[in-house]
Each structure stands twice: as C-alpha cells, then as structure tokens.
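Researcher: I've been going back and forth with a colleague about how IRG1 decarboxylase might be arranged in three dimensions. Neither of us has a model we trust, so I'd like an independent prediction. The organism is Fregata magnificens, in case that matters for your notes. Sequence below.
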Amino acid sequence: SQTITGNFANVIYGLNANHLTDQVIQRSKRMILDTLGVGLLGTSTEVCHKVTKYSKTYSSDISSTIWGHLDFRLPPLYAAFVNGVAVHSMDFDDTWHPATHPSGAVLPAVIALSEAFPQKKKISGLDLLLAFNVGIEVQGRLLRFSSEARNIPKR
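Model: Here is an independent structure prediction for IRG1 decarboxylase. You can compare it with whatever you and your colleague have in mind.
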C-alpha cells in the first residue's frame, strides 16, 4: 500500500503540459503578470534593499536575474529569495484561503531556476507554466493536508 506522501509525489511527478487547460494557462499568465508587476514595485522597498545588499556577498558561476537590476546577478537561491521578498514586501500579491500567497513563493523560484539551466537546455515557456502550476498545486495540497491551516480564520 502506498503512503499519502508517495501518492502525492506520484501525482506531482505525473503532471505534464497536457494537463494545462486553456483556462489554467490564461489564469496562470494573469497570476504571473500580476506577480511580476508587484515584484518590480517591491524592488523599491527598504526590506528588499536590505536583502539585496545581504545577498550580494554570495557569488556563483551560475546566476539568475534580480528583478529591476541589470547591474548584477545572484546565485538562483539568492535571486529567488530577493525576488520573493520584493513580491511580498508590497503585500499586494495574490492570496487564497487558508491564507497564503501562492505566486510570490513559486514564481521567483521557478524563474531563478529556469535561468540557471545551461543555454543548450533552456526550458520553454510552456515548461515554465507547467513548473509554476506544479508549484501552486503543491502549495495548495500541502495547505489542504495541514491541520494548522484549517484553524486560520476566514477573512
């Protein structure tokens, strides 16, 4: 018999671009555009300046874009961190119940990782949409599994 975690992993592993309906693709694009807009605005916040300054101490041969900065790049882990802080620092990013901000956690990581692929293995836009939706799906399912999340009051 399979564990809940094993079943969950198999579902996630089995997702592919054919599972992305037109409606999912359109909503995903809207979520991504919203997240990028909020993230670009968030690059001007004090907290984003602080994490950017902190993260500049790390370097790597593999690097990813820091939104709103053409003058430097960071390792994917730190690029995702800085861009995620930028998105959430404005607190306008998308939410759902129980309270979470799905795109602000997922998109910066997906974009940073996609940039880290070697040139000959770059991923397509459809692959990026799939990765984004898998991240959203994982987050949603983890919330559904969480007994603590059920106690968050509806707002």
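Researcher: What would you highlight for our discussion?
Model: I'd start with this: Helices lie at 4-13, 22-42, 46-55, 76-89, 102-116, 125-145. After that, consider the following. The longest helix spans residues 22-42.
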